[in-house]
Amino acid sequence: MIGPANVVRSGFYAGLPVSKNFSALATPFVSKPDPNYSPVPGTSNTIDLSGVPSLNIRPVTSKAPVQSFAKPALPSVLLSNGARATLLCMPNRRQSTLYLTLPLSPELSGLGGLFTGLLTNGSDETRQRSEALRQQNILVTFTGLTDKLIAVVRGPAGREAEMAQGVLSLLCNPHWTPEDFERLRQNTARLIEDEAQAPDSPLLTAMNRALYGPSNLYSLTPAEHIAKMAIQTPWTLWMALQRTLRATPAAMLMMASPRPESEQGAILDWTIRQVGWGGNPFMAALPPVSSAIAPSAFQGLLLTPNNTLKRARIDIIWQAPPPGDRDYPAFLLLRHILGGQMKGSFFERLRMQDRLVYGVPTHSGSRLGEQSRYHAGIEVDFDKIAPGERELLAVAQEAALHPVAGDVLDTAKRHFLLELRSAEQTTWRTLLNAEPWLLRDQSPPSPEMMENAIAQVTAEDVQRVAQRIFSIPGKLQLVGISAPASILRRCFPGYPLTPPVS
Amino acid sequence: MARPSKEASVSSAASSTIRPAWLLSVQQGRSPAGYPLTLYTLRNGHRILVERRGGGIVGVRTFVNAGSVWEDAVKPGPSYRNLGLPSGIAHLDEHCHFLTTRHFPRKNAWAQTVARHGANANASTDNEVIQHELFFNKEDTSALLALHAESLLHPVYNAGDIPQEKAAVLNEVALRTRQPDFKLESKLDELLFDRPATQTGGRAADVATTSAEQLRLFYRMAYTPKRMVTAISGDVDPMEALAILGPVFGNNPNHVDLPVNPALVMTLKPGERRSAVIRNEEWSNSKVLLGFPAPTSNNFRDRIAMEFLTEALDGGLLSPLPLRLIVRSRLAFREAMGYEPLNRTGVTRLRLDCAPGKERDVLAATLDVLSDIGAHPPDARTVEGIRDRLVARFKEGQDTVAEVTGRLGGEALSDTLPYYLAYEQLAGSVTGEDIARVARTYLNPQCYAVVFGLPTGSGLRKDPEAAAFFKNRRDVS
Predict the structure, then answer these.
(1) Residue in B168, B152, B196 with CA at minimum distance from that of residue B60
(2) Beta-carbon separation of A8 and B55 below 8 A
(3) Is the CB of A156 less than 8 angstroms away from the CB of B282?
(4) Does B389 touch chain A (CB under 8 A)?
(5) Which residues pair with A16 in a beta bridge?
(6) CA–CA distance from A99 to each of A65, A149, A245, A331, B175 (Å)?
(7) Does the beta-carbon distance from B248 to A45 stay under 8 Å?
(8) What is the pTM of this model?
(9) pLDDT tens-place string over residues B23-78
(10) Which residue, A48, A122, B280, B467, shows the most beta carbons closer than 10 Å to its own?
(11) Please, how many CA atoms are within 13 Å of residue B198, restricted to the half-sphere of its CB?
């Protein structure tokens, strides 16, 4: 019988008693009171917060043997066409998710937007097939990156076969008409044009060109994207897709579903045969787009004029360990410690202390080649460019100089655990967490293994990875600042401005 | 761990136990996901909902029936009274709840303590609702629930501390308002409600000069129990949650009861059309933003039919809006539609992106599509398909504690909890004629507001390579 009288008998709530059971719950795990806490006696609705900072989550250090992400815990299986699949059984979920990545052949690189439109919307027949999936509550989303095509399929648990068949049918038996091709090409150009107008677009394009060189596919400007699209025909794209599909050893699939892994594997294998995705198991994977960083980019300052901006943008790119690296778990915790939009060292310093910004979004990207990036960006008033840049760099340098305190590391581990648990609520968020590995053609670790590897990270590990990322000289640290030309000239007299890249 | 069942209801629990003075009633039932749901109504009016489910994450949100509609208007009009509350105060006050509290008197100590648990804290403010949220590991439940109550009921407005949050608010507003699309949306709200979306951020001068005393007054007016609902979801024993929150929320007195603007009002009169034009050099293409009056949140019959209508018009590639505007006529290259129920009105918004020069054609074609569905009700099979998809989507929304606490608390605050609890049943009652009826009633081509967003920049057409393609493209279209 649930009744509040069972609970409230004695104790710390305004003279209301507390039962033994509840008392146990409220008892702090550590006796040391929070230094922030100040008791206010004699108020009718006083809250007991003396136990608030208690360390009452599961131990963050485990006796289990040390594991890193270097060797994936989730086994991958080889499907009959040579593609690899990682399978994850997640009981009691309402929804299943299938994730597929294919490296785009060079002709398709940078044309992902157009290409994904053609796959779902390329003709009446294609639209009918997409609509039939929607009628079954199966949602297919294609995303085109510079060098990858990603398909994410979400559908009701139990309909995994229909999900797999639906997406592979759209992919392996594409159909588009010249009229729809032209319509989608025009619409995609409009979208690229709109995106190019985003305040950060010119600066990020300029930074990519500085990092990888102007001829690299990562560095295509919006205008170059459109020019590349303009020379395509329905036939050239169809041929390029066939080449992409034939290179099955480079295809990665991952499924998360309440079904046992064996059933998931059988469904995928059966579907591959059904749709005729034969591929060529002996065909080598397509070469990845190079992400080698140009030597001139190291410790560079890039000033990109943009006269439409109302506030300045400051972006900094560092080089980070990629998934699979032994330092990757420590890097994940370092990201939590440095923070992002609403917490962490960047937030504490730039928002709370210096009142320069609303938040400090950070991002880590993983590319097919050897490089991985860590990126922090802010928007500041024009008169705060210098302190904004200085403080961003100072926070990063301090992480490299000083070992992280034990309670800060513990907090980062707790937060990581929270994010992991948050992701585990659904299959698609779980697969989203696995994306950094999948994008690098690696099988991801299981959630349990991620948790375990994080638990092993020490303060020394975090400082080591911070030094690896932030300790100059020798490390990449590209600073990009965008503002109207007059502002940049005033702030950086004599420093050359990068010609605007459209 | 709690087991799901198919029931979704809340009923009074027979209780022979002794209740504390602050507790009025306990009702128990099942959430739409089938988990045990307990509703505690405190004697002062504060309601606490607890959905007990498994998983390692717990979410708690407290909703306050107050917002920027109480403030003096940034653009004065006849629809709302001026109460002497400066613009932006609701939002600034929300920030101050994280700043200094009675038991954490040092600036930012509350936030640092929450952060040490690895928890995610956030809050939001709009015209009608203020919302505070915390998500944390289940092992930290007792501490974090207490911290949640602390921030809600015991903010301390130290004049020396507040400038920090004023700076954060001004940076936040600058970040948002510099988006050209935000100007478009704000203008549409102004046409519909006499209240631009810039109201919640407030005028910079008002934010900068808001005093600690004004914030205290706002707090006492807004954070009063009868205006508050708390929703919790996770592996939490409802009794334990009540034992922590009940004495705190239950002893919060109902403060000041001053007259306020209770909610947004639709100022568009029947048969009235309003329009505006915004030009911006950061756009390359044109935008057409349409707004129609829509059902209130407590008009269940029209509200559920409106959800069906939105899905019927814009649910997929073969739905009338994308099919006719994008695929067939090629007038637009992107479109989106959404319906938002509010306390005393509602709004349906449509956004269409098109090439410059096509704006009026896009508007006319869109109104044609809306008229058609009013004249031709969808057949039974189509309605059945829509029902399946909406119910499936609704069920998916029950998978995360973030979404569940959002829906539970939001609906309870609007006194529309039955809409959420009986969603499947309501969806089962909608017919094709219902869909056509709400289309005729609410998406009336004679009554709407429209904002045209026109580009003044040349976009990429100044680039020779892109220009060649754009030239070709114009020939084709």
Answers:
(1) B152
(2) no
(3) no
(4) yes
(5) A13
(6) 31, 11, 16, 25, 34
(7) yes
(8) 0.88
(9) 999 999 999 999 999 999 999 999 999 999 999 999 999 999 999 999 999 988 88
(10) A122
(11) 24
